[in-house]
Every structure is written in structure tokens, then in C-alpha cells.
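User: My collaborator sent over this chain with a note saying "see what the structure looks like." That's all I know about it. Can you take a look?
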Amino acid sequence: MDDALITSPLGILATLTGVASFFFLLEKRTGWRVFNLFPPLLFIYAVPLVLSNTGVISNESPLYDWMGETVLPMFLVLMLLDVDVLAAVRIMGKGILVLLCGTAGIVLGAPVAYSLVKHGLDPDAWKGFGALAGSWIGGTGNMGAVAKGLDTPPSAFGLAVLTDAMVYLVWLPILLGSKSCARWFNRFARVDPKRIEMLERRSGGLAHDKGRPEMRHILYLLFLGLFVPCVARVLVVYLPEAKPVLTAGSWEILLITTFAILLSMTPAKKIPGSGELAVALVYLFVAQMGARAEIAGLARQALWFLLGGYIWILVHGLFCVAGARVLRVDIHSTAIASAANIGGIASAPIVAAYHNQKLVPVSILMALIGYAIGNYGAFAAAWLCYLVE
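Assistant: Without extra context I'll predict from the sequence alone. Here is the result:
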């Protein structure tokens, strides 16, 4: 809106930062259970949406483009510095394969669900499915990255955020409740009784504190967060496009992802503060996506998109169960693998703690694997949805 109350980039950025800060402060100070059902992410998206649609802040500003070009690639680099692929494979063994089965369920379930609900959605809603796949394979950061790579409309991104939260409300209790059928499931999957003891033993020494970040560490992280995207943008002009999925923007996200994973295998992984700074930038990016969306576009398609999400999660669940059966993996590892996909690093430790407290460190490793493969899998899911459009 050109006649909005707040139009300057600085004022809009201050508002978005204030909104994100407020809901985390509210969660911390009050401990309200509502945040267990509706995480701060949902409010951080919804409040700027309301503010921009009621004329408080402008929904058109050069700030939004700047955040897409600078903030997003920066948090993608910093987020992936914590990935430890080799450790996860060494400790989880076949559990990682169940994680990948769940990922396959998300990639292949996307076109199945989309084909059943697309008649109630806008023609470019497949981009929203791609963004949601990013969240369900990796996390919120991947969702933002894929949305940027696909040039996802703000309304479609909003549908992805809404569906992510509403499906989580149903799926998380199922994953927690699966503990009660552990004996039956483990017989069904023909699990070796010694597997749980092996996982507990291997995960014992995983906890690792990188220490308190100092000023120089912040500078190191800012440099890496700016330098890696610069390199990617130099290289992307030499890569072929296959529109509308594999565009220059998509290639840039994939290159940044690959370079960041390679950096995670160097001493850069040990720089303190990378995860915290990355998450803060992720929430700022989600807030600006909310500020750009229109409420009308969300309301008209919400029920169909949500229905697609529930069909989709069912396919994912079937893939996880089938993978556990074939690979003889226990219910605890299977539930953690699904949570590492669907809920990411915020939910996997919750599920792990409920099933077996000693598996919490392993669950974090599995969620980080999701970060690493999230962008690749999400672009594949988006491409499959586009094919059934």
C-alpha cells in the first residue's frame, strides 16, 4: 500500500524485528501452552500479514527484495555449517535410510496430493507445495530458500506456513503416541532387540558446545554468509536453466547449499553462534514474507491446500513404516526420522526425549541431515507438482 503508515525500509525492518522479538519474549516469559500447539513462526508470519493488509506497513518496499537477495542466502550458509553427515550415518546406520524413505514419501507424495486438490488452487500453487516440501524435509530455513528459488507468491507461501502448522498439530501427537505400540511395531518390523542398546551407546558422546561467540566470530560468520552467495552468483550464469523450476534463482540456492555443506566439513563448522544467528535471520525472512501476502488469496485456497497437506503426510507416513519394515528399524528411530523430516530440529528432540531421552543427540543429527538435503528434495517435489499441473 502506497498510503501505509510505515513505508520506509528502516521502519518496516524495525517493525518486523519487533514482531519476531515480541513473540519469542512472550513464549519465554509466559510459558503459555498455546505455543506448543501454534509455534511462534505462525504468529511471526500472521501479524505482519495483518499489518500490511490493514495499512500499517507497506507491502511494497525495496527492503523485501534486499532481504531475499542478502538475508536469505546468509542464513542458508550459517544454518548448514552445523551439519555433520558422517557422524549421523555412523551412529544411526539404517535409521538414516528410514529418514530418506520419509523424504522420498514427501517428494513423491507432493504430486499425489497436489493432483487431488489442484482444482481448488491457483495455477502457481505448486510453488507453495515446493516451499512446504522444503520445510518438511529440512525446516523453516529450507522453506524460505525454496520459496525464493521458485519465486513463490507470498500467498502460496502463507498457505505453506498455515498447512505446516496445522498438519504438525495432528502429526506430532501421532509420533509421540507411537511409543505405546513399540512392542507390536518392533515385532512387525522384525527389529533386533540389541539395536536400541547400540543407539544409546553410540549417542552418548555426541553433545558438543561450540562455546560463547565473540565479536570476531560474528565477523567470520558475516563474511562466510556474504562470500558464499557471491561465489554462487558468479557461477550461476554458466548453468543451464529449465524453467519454471530450475531457474537462475533455483541454481543459486542449490549452489549455496552445496558450498555450505562442504564448509561444514572444514574448521568453519566450529565457529560459535552460527546456528543462533541463522535462526534469527530465518524468522525475519518469514516475517517479511507475511508482510507481502494478501489475506484474500490465502482464505480462498486454504481448505484445499490444507486437505492436500493431510493427504501428503499420510503418504509420508506410509513410506516411513514401509522403510522400517524392510530395514528392520525400531519405532523410536522411525518416529524420530519422521519428526526430523516434518518438524526439523525443533521437533525431533521432543519426539526423541519422549521415546528415549538418550536418543536426543541423535535426533538433532538427523534433523541436520534434513537441512542438508531439504533444498534438493524440495525442488524435486516442486518439479513433480509442476508436471501434474
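A starting point for your reply to your collaborator: Residues 9-387 form one domain.
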